[in-house]
Amino acid sequence: MKHFITSVLALGTLTLLVGCGQTTTTNQKSSQTQTSKKAVSHAKPTSSSSSQPITATFKNQAFTIQHVTFKLTGQQVTASSTANRQLFVLYYTVTNQQGKSIVPSDLWESAVSATQDGHTLTTGNLAFTTDQTQDNNRLNRTVMPLDSGKSVTGLATFEPKNQDPITVTFKDSNGHTIHQSRYPIS
User: Fold this and answer.
1) What pTM was computed for the model?
2) Architecture per CATH, 2-183
């Protein structure tokens, strides 16, 4: 009976995640301190148009855009559901300071991207196991509305193509690059 319930819950979560184009990850291994040590950060406020104001900030591992703050709390490289592939996972706590609800993953995906060797990375999939329940919950919370004044823990995944470092770019709503961090894969 327990196996049946676990299977039904797993299938329901997997269906939700497939519909959202997102996946799950394994246990969080890194802390904010480890993030700072592993990532090479570069502040790059650049302007595609001098007439457009900069609408986001990145300071102390916190990316703030449209009154929503994503505080980076860790990262890890873990196995993907695709054979012989890995996933790069960024963990964060998101706080909504807007006067209305937001969906964290929508804002994240519009402002944050990753590249490797000049190629844009996509999100990837992890094999679904009960060991990943905590990260499944984190991921599920990012696709649900977050009320004003509330915070939740979440994560984002990128699928690297090789062992070269990944560059994560944070942009504001006008397309200005606010910050870049470079993460080693190995």
Assistant:
1) 0.73
2) Sandwich (2.60)
